[in-house]
């Protein structure tokens, strides 16, 4: 009696990860800074900010002591604006109680069309925050495609989508060459063909301190911090650069730390009249919100918001 043994004669599925992602993971996607925003991840400040006072605030790189309840109310107001615009607001769970900077979630991940790249903070007192973020992403069903490792340093606010094929990445105190190479490898695997490299100057720690996309093919910049090579490459990609030059607004009231809800509509920290007027002249719809308490930790709207889903631009 003969037996026909087929063994391992099977064929794998040739569907891409992106094709199967909605079925197995959910609708998570980001390849833009300005496409319609649909889901975000934030961390509501908890007990970790209760101990920030006049004798220790500088130890955590805060610029002043912080009033915890007022900070929470300001972030709650931002979350409410998101919900009013149909945006799902998710919160980081089980964050460590010794991490007062954890409200600045943008630093801890960079979202892509196929999932999140989890960063590795530059400052040692922030390390460990990314673990709670990674666990929350897992619980939500957001794929984690990479975690920066080895001697790499990378924070999400050191990268910025320009379009589906183009990402701007800066090196500096919060992103070193090793970390950026790891991120670049993953992005190229996802179909990003243009990586614009730049240096983040000594006077800034992240890109969103001096540049931010505001509309289709429009970026607001603080021109004295943008390198010539970076500006040239952006303009060659068809990006119109809007120069905001009020130093006080850029550096103290964080005028460029805004979040785009959709092309041409942003939420900006209040107290930036010159920048607001400049943007309105460019046809931008500006919503201002009080963020002065949150700013005592050197962050605002954009720093607190990690994008989990933006609709692809058509």
Helix content: 10-25%
Which CATH architecture? 5-stranded Propeller
Our estimate of the beta-strand percent is 15-25%
CATH topology: L-arginine/glycine Amidinotransferase, Chain A
CATH superfamily: L-arginine/glycine Amidinotransferase, Chain A
User: What is the C-level CATH assignment?
Assistant: Alpha Beta
The best one-word shape is globular
Number of DSSP E strands:
15
How many structural domains can be distinguished in the coordinates?
1
Give the class from helix and strand content and strand pairing.
Answer: alpha/beta
- Note the main sheet: 3 strands, mixed
Taking pLDDT < 50 over at least 5 consecutive residues as the criterion, the unreliable ranges are none
Number of helices: 8
Distance between the termini: 63 Å
Overall mean pLDDT = 95
Question: What is the secondary structure topology, with strand pairs?
Answer:
Elements lengths: L16 H8 L12 E6 L25 H17 L3 E4 L17 E4 L2 E4 L10 H12 L3 E4 L11 E5 L2 E6 L5 H13 L4 E6 L11 E5 L2 E4 L6 H9 L3 E4 L3 H5 L7 E4 L2 E5 L3 H9 L3 E5 L11 H4 L1 E5 L4
Parallel strand pairs: 1-2, 4-5, 7-8, 10-11, 13-14
Antiparallel strand pairs: 1-15, 3-4, 6-7, 9-10, 12-13
Keywords: Transferase
Protein name: Amidinotransferase
GO molecular function, one term: transferase activity
What does this structure look like?
This protein is α/β, with parallel strands linked by helices. The protein has a single domain (26-310), classed as L-arginine/glycine Amidinotransferase, Chain A (5-stranded Propeller). 25% of the residues lie in helices and 23% in strands. The strands form five sheets. Strands 2-1-15 form a three-stranded mixed sheet. Strands 3-4-5 form a three-stranded mixed sheet, sandwiched between helices. It comes from Salicibibacter kimchii. This is Amidinotransferase. GO terms for molecular function: arginine deiminase activity; transferase activity. One of its GO terms (biological process) is L-arginine deiminase pathway.
């Amino acid at each position: 009696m003969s037996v026909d043994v087929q063994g391992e004669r099977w064929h794998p599925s040739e569907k891409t990860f992106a094709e199967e992602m909605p079925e197995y993971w959910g609708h998570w996607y980001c390849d833009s800074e300005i496409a319609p925003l649909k889901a975000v991840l934030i961390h509501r400040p908890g007990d970790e900010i209760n101990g920030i006072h006049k004798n220790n605030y500088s130890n955590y790189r805060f610029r002043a002591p912080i009033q915890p309840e007022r900070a929470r109310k300001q972030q709650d107001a931002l979350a409410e604006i998101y919900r009013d615009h149909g945006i799902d607001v998710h919160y980081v769970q089980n964050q460590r109680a010794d991490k007062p900077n954890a409200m600045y979630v943008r630093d801890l991940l960079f979202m892509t069309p196929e999932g999140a790249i989890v960063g590795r903070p530059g400052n040692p007192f922030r390390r460990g925050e990314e673990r709670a973020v990674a666990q929350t992403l897992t619980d939500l069903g957001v794929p984690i495609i990479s975690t920066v490792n080895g001697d790499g340093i990378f924070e999400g606010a050191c990268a910025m989508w320009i379009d589906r094929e183009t990402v701007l990445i800066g090196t500096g105190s919060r992103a070193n060459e090793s970390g950026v190479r790891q991120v670049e490898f993953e992005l190229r695997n996802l179909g990003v063909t243009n990586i614009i490299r730049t240096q983040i100057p000594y006077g800034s720690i992240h890109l969103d301190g001096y540049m931010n996309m505001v509309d289709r093919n429009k970026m607001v910049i603080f021109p004295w911090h943008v390198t010539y090579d970076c500006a040239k490459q952006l303009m060659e990609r068809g990006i119109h650069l809007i120069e905001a030059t009020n130093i006080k607004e850029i550096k103290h009231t964080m005028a460029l730390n805004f979040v785009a809800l959709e092309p041409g509509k942003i939420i900006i920290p209040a107290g930036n009249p010159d920048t607001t007027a400049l943007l309105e002249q460019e046809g931008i719809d500006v919503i201002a919100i009080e963020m002065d308490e949150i700013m005592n930790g050197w962050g605002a709207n954009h720093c607190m918001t990690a994008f989990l889903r933006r609709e692809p631009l058509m």
